[in-house]
DNA sequence: ACCTGAACACCGTTCAAGT
DNA sequence: ACCTGAACACCGTTCAAGT
């Protein structure tokens, strides 16, 4: 029996690179994320990363894909409890989304920038769509319960996520004109939901 | 009479740098924007830019400030006609905002990134606020005409701009799931406006 | 299969010097 | 006041070579 699948000098460099890259991103921004610096930290030669990622952008894409996967898990947990009424679930989802972005600001910036490129790999686009799929899901369930007006759940969900995403983009340091996002998020959700309620008093 | 205020080797390098930088940004993205490359194009030494901007970030900030100023002018033109009804004006404003971002995508990315930094200069933050001031303005006028429900105009405007900003961020290549922003923008505006109309049938 | 080291063509920034 | 040139400490990527 030969030695197990233990690579040459490191453990599994690909995984270590992604972890170190994310740490570097959170602490020093995209500026501090350098293949050579990563190599130094992991004690390998400065060309080793190119064995696992064909270039720097490929590593960034890998980081973005994992980011979307974790975002998806976070949103999934937020909408888990099916017993609640629609507006409560949507607010939980919105808070989870904004919270994730606040916690991983640099990573989220990278995620959307990576997704925007025309040459973005299919895997990345799919990871993004999976992460956002929890929105349409609860809208569809809300419609099934008669809590939400008819319409394409994906489009209804888009309005909410767009508003949240824009709120984050426009705000500075988690605030807009001194008002915390914790306060603005439910306010915005409430305002948008009004336009999505089924017409109980048709005339 | 001595020679007029004609600088040493160039015309006015500061202005030329900003123009060349914006051109480089639009054509090659932030990647292609390099002090040394700019210097080469303008035929000056590679350290000349540092005479006018203390470092690269200062030049990027300058670019962002001008970007916000031009955005403000664009939005100002969009809301000029006071005779129209509120919803038409808001839709024009929204289209102008999305159009500007579509036309100057890389610049807009830079603008918001620059504004997000904790060390962003005061001048930049003020330019940003001025650009967005046209939103609250038409909301206030809409309220004066009885077309919009009561509430802080800045907060009402925020909901709309956040939704637009997020729509741009979430979409890829000007589309979301194959649907053009030209279609989605008025749809979103219409959906949000519903929640802002004054209660004509109070009970 | 995986890693290394020299080499190449770039960067931003500093600093003493020039006109 | 404005610009230059050498120098420093970095980059990403290629490529022949090693185990």
Fold and architecture overview:
The structure is a homodimer of 203-residue chains. By secondary structure, the first copy, chain A, is an all-alpha fold. Chain A is 67% helix and 2% strand. In chain A, α4 crosses α6, α5 packs antiparallel against α8 and α5 (86-103) packs antiparallel against α10 (181-194). The relative contact order of chain A is 0.10. The interface between A and B is large, with 36 and 37 residues. The structure holds a DNA duplex (19 and 19 nucleotides).
Q: How much helicity do the residues of chain A have? A: 55-70%
Uncertain stretches of chain A:
1-7
Question: How far apart are the termini of chain A?
Answer: 80 Å
Estimated radius of gyration of chain A: 21 Å
Global geometry of chain A: elongated
What would the average pLDDT of chain A be, to the nearest integer? 88
Order of secondary-structure elements of chain A: HHHHHHHHHEEH
Largest interface: A-B, 36 and 37 residues
Structural class of chain A: mainly alpha
Q: Summarize the main sheet of chain A.
A: 2 strands, antiparallel
Strand order of the largest sheet of chain A: 1-2
What is the overall number of helices of chain A? 10
Oligomer: homodimer
Strand element count of chain A: 2
Proportion of β residues of chain A?
under 5%
């Amino acid at each position: 029996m030969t030695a197990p699948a233990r690579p040459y000098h490191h453990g599994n460099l690909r995984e270590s690179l992604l972890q170190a890259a994310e740490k570097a991103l959170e602490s020093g921004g995209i500026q501090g994320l350098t293949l050579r610096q990563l190599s130094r930290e992991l004690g390998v030669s400065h060309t080793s990363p190119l064995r696992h990622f064909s270039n720097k952008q490929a590593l960034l894409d890998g980081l973005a894909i994992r980011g979307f996967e974790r975002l998806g898990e976070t949103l999934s947990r937020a909408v888990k409890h099916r017993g609640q009424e629609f507006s409560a679930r949507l607010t939980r989802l919105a808070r989870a989304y904004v919270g994730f972005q606040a916690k991983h600001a640099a990573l989220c910036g990278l995620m959307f920038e990576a997704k925007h490129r025309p040459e973005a790999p299919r895997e990345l686009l799919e990871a993004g769509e999976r992460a956002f799929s929890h929105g349409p899901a609860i809208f569809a369930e809300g419609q099934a319960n008669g809590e939400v007006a008819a319409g394409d759940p994906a489009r209804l969900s888009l309005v909410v996520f767009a508003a949240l995403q824009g709120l984050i983009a426009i705000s500075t340091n988690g605030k807009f004109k001194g008002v915390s996002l914790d306060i603005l998020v439910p306010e915005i959700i409430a305002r948008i939901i009004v336009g999505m309620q089924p017409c109980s008093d048709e005339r």
